[in-house]
Amino acid sequence: MKLNDLKPNEGSKKSRNRVGRGTSAGQGKTAGRGTKGQGARSGGGTRTYHQGGNLPFYRRLPFVRGQGFTPLHRVQYQEINLDQLRSFPAGSLVSPDTLAASQLLSDSLNPVVILGRGEVKVALKVQAHRVSQGARKKIEAAGGSVEILSGVSSE
């Protein structure tokens, strides 16, 4: 086999229709372009994003979404404050599973962050995806421990 023997597969190449060349071109009277108008003319047609006089979609977007935009892959944390952990007895494990069991989480699939509002009176073993510095100090001052769970980058 030589380079001059190479051919494309049968049926893989199709010649384009030369529209607007009369009835003998096998396309009928209007050659598939409809009757009159911008699309029927040679070189006619509209630019990309044309919406027939409406404000184009890409120019409407800033008004639709207000300032900025919503990141697609934003991490939405479940916030738990220390005053919500009052119901846990001393020495108990506070993890996303136990928080979901005690109905403190609205969505158990999202990562959990422990925030420092309130006080902790008993020693707790806290497991969360993120813990604020103030919350960590209060938990450790009460004799508890903090473990950061993997899966979400912590600050």
Descriptive account of the structure:
Helix content is 15%, strand content 13%. By secondary structure, the chain is α/β, with parallel strands linked by helices. It is built from three helices and six strands, in the order αββαβββαβ. The mean pLDDT is 86. The protein is elongated. 13% of the residues are buried. The protein has a domain of 71 residues: Ribosomal Protein L15, Chain: K, domain 2, CATH 3.100.10.
Rg over CA atoms = 33 Å
Poorly predicted regions: none
Strand order of the largest sheet: 1-3-5
- Biggest sheet, open or closed, and with what strands and sense? 3 strands, parallel
- CATH class category name of the domain at 78-148: Alpha Beta
Percent in strands: 5-15%
Under the CATH scheme, the architecture of the domain at 78-148 is Ribosomal Protein L15, Chain: K, domain 2
- Would you give the CATH topology of the domain at 78-148? Ribosomal Protein L15, Chain: K, domain 2
Total DSSP helices: 3
Report the helical percentage: 10-25%
Shape: elongated
Helix- and strand-based class? alpha/beta
The sequence of SSEs as H and E is: HEEHEEEHE
* Quaternary organization: single chain
The overall pLDDT average reads 86
Please report the distance between the alpha carbons of the first and last residues.
63 Å
The total count of strands amounts to 6
